[in-house]
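User: My collaborator sent over this chain with a note saying "see what the structure looks like." That's all I know about it. Can you take a look?
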Amino acid sequence: MPAEIRRSIVYRSERGKTIRLCMTIRGNEITHVTFTGDFFGEPAEELSKLGEILIGLNAGDVNELFRRIDEFFNERIEWIAGASPNDFKQALVKLLESFSDND
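Assistant: Without extra context I'll predict from the sequence alone. Here is the result:
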């Protein structure tokens, strides 16, 4: 069984807000994801579930990860302040690069 690898990054959105992303990967499978930071939106309880939609996906399939993030914001979030869906995708790219750079 492949070992779990954990990484976290802090990303600054274009609007100056912080997005902290923590992720665990086993093999290529995403097993844990959390997004936190000083952004906010409604409904807040849904926004806190963003990471859950990525669990079980292949970390190398960036197109599918981006599609899921876009779908999440389009279907479940009424509004968000301080960050955009693109900021979350950019944070994800930066984190995924750290997995390949350090392995």
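A starting point for your reply to your collaborator: The chain has one domain: 4-102.
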